[in-house]
Write a structure and sequence with these properties.
By secondary structure, this protein is mostly helical. Helix content is 62%, strand content 0%. It is globular and about 35 Å long.
């Protein structure tokens, strides 16, 4: 495949590739081929951080449960809440978390202070 050097074309092709997958196993196989183990771990960790922020967990609980740095948590929090100066940023996290059944502001049955 000849590339015209456009990152947008590459991203569009990636998005279409992801949309072509039919189930969790296909997604896992594709991501395992496409990404390194640390990349998958990093994406998984950021999603877990987003889930915990979305359900109103405090930073200390998030660090303890996910092992994420406070810098990572802050970056995800900014994206989730402030949108990085982009009105649509964070929309993806909120969409996915909602579709996965997460309720904003509702920790998963745990007290906030332990």
């Amino acid at each position: 495949m000849v590339s015209n050097g456009s990152d947008e074309n590459g991203r569009d092709y990636l998005y279409k590739a992801i949309l072509s997958l039919s189930n969790e196993q296909e997604v896992a196989d594709f991501l395992d081929d496409l990404c390194t183990v640390p990349e998958i771990k990093s994406m998984s960790q950021r999603l877990q951080v987003a889930k915990m922020l979305y359900t109103s967990h405090v930073y200390t609980d998030i660090v303890e449960e996910t092992g994420a740095s406070t810098a990572t948590i802050s970056r995800v929090n900014r994206t989730l809440n402030d949108g990085h100066d982009n009105a649509v940023s964070g929309r993806g996290y909120r969409l996915v978390l909602t579709r996965l059944g997460e309720k904003a502001g509702a920790p998963e049955g745990r007290g906030r202070g332990r």
